[in-house]
């Protein structure tokens, strides 16, 4: 293993929220020695996520904070008290980038400290590849695209909805995933069908119909249809009042309200979203007593409280334990090719290309694919 440098390149927040002016390339210290309980990874690829630019725009990050939440690479150092990882392991990790209170934790840097409990260890050597098609994880680019997504889905299904990790116990259960063609939606469909054994209903533009059925969706409805809510309720079976599990991966007010309307009016139902929407966001209606509303915030998986927008968001032992249970299963599923990465769009030009990627994400120009950047030296 080559010598670890004392400094390295990273993409950091400029302090501007103007589209096209979010990041700059900086030289940043390498975290050495590696903290106890952590891994140091030489990054080979990183994925871009909407949460990256949103952290910047809502000022959850400050000038100089390193951006990015998804990465893949090679372990170059192992902190004390870490089990199950060795130098040379190929891994992918989820970290909290663009974050004021952990400014060095962003994934768009050459050397990154990661949390083992949110890291997937691969049983084979990954390669650097320009391959963009969906497949089981074989490349660092594919690996970089998957970790935040499966962590988010796992927290929603395992912790918030309390669904059992046992296909036989989920027979007859149906989950609506609103936004099947989002990066999270693509993984959510696969996990819900292939790991949990659920019947899956999803929404997307008609052009994604066959692609989402390939992921495992049993029903795909066009969200543009005026009667899409009625179509979903009918597909869920029975008298149209059977749907009791829903995840909104888009999580804007309109999709939140549409998803809410699909749920049973009488049976206990659980509705999870990803952007903190709650009862106050229901248009002209009061929440029904039979519906439980939750919002998955994946950063709580780190096990420590997060300060976001001046508010403290609490973690818990239950959250960490539920993730540990899920992680054992999902790591195996990813390694066995049961879960595949989404189609990739690999941006050329090193970390600087992330600026283009964030603009595409911010302006709604990305669908059914994941944006990938590579360090300048890869």
UniProtKB/TrEMBL annotation:
Residues 15-373 form the Enoyl reductase (ER) domain. InterPro entries: ADH-like_C, ADH-like_N, ER, GroES-like_sf, NAD(P)-bd_dom_sf, Trans-enoyl_RdTase-like. It comes from the Eukaryota. GO terms for molecular function: oxidoreductase activity, acting on NAD(P)H. This is DEKNAAC103144.
């Amino acid at each position: 293993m080559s010598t670890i440098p004392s400094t390295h390149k990273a993409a950091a927040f400029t302090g501007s929220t103007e589209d096209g002016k979010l990041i700059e390339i900086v030289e940043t210290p390498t975290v050495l020695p590696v903290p106890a309980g952590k891994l140091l990874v030489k990054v080979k690829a990183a994925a871009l996520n909407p949460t990256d630019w949103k952290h910047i725009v809502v000022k959850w990050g400050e000038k100089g904070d390193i951006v990015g939440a998804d990465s893949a690479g090679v372990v170059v150092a192992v902190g004390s008290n870490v089990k199950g990882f060795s130098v040379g392991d190929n891994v992918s990790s989820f970290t909290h980038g663009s974050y004021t209170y952990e400014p060095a934790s962003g994934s768009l840097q050459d050397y990154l400290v990661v949390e083992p409990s949110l890291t997937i260890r691969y049983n084979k050597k990954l390669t650097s590849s320009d391959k963009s098609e969906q497949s089981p994880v074989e490349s660092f680019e594919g690996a970089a695209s998957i970790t935040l997504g499966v962590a988010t889905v796992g927290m929603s299904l395992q912790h918030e909805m309390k669904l059992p990790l046992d296909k036989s116990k989920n027979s007859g259960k149906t989950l609506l995933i609103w936004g099947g063609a989002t990066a999270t939606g693509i993984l959510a469909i696969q996990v819900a069908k292939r790991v949990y054994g659920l019947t899956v209903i999803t929404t997307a533009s008609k052009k994604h119909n066959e692609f989402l059925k390939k992921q495992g969706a049993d029903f795909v409805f066009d969200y543009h249809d005026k009667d899409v809510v009625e179509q979903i309720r009918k597909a869920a079976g029975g008298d149209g009042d059977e749907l009791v599990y829903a995840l909104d991966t888009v999580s804007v007010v309109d999709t939140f309200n549409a998803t809410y309307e699909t749920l049973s009016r009488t049976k206990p139902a659980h509705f999870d979203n990803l952007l903190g929407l709650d009862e106050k966001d229901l248009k002209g209606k009061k929440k029904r007593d039979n519906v439980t509303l939750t919002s998955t915030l994946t950063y709580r998986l780190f096990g420590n409280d997060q300060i976001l927008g001046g508010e403290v968001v609490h973690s818990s032992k239950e959250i960490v334990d539920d993730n540990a249970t899920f992680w054992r299963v999902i790591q195996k599923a990813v390694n066995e090719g049961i879960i595949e990465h989404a189609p990739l769009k690999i941006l050329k030009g090193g970390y600087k290309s992330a600026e283009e990627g964030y603009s595409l994400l911010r302006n709604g120009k990305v669908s059914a694919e994941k944006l990938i950047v590579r360090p300048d030296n890869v």
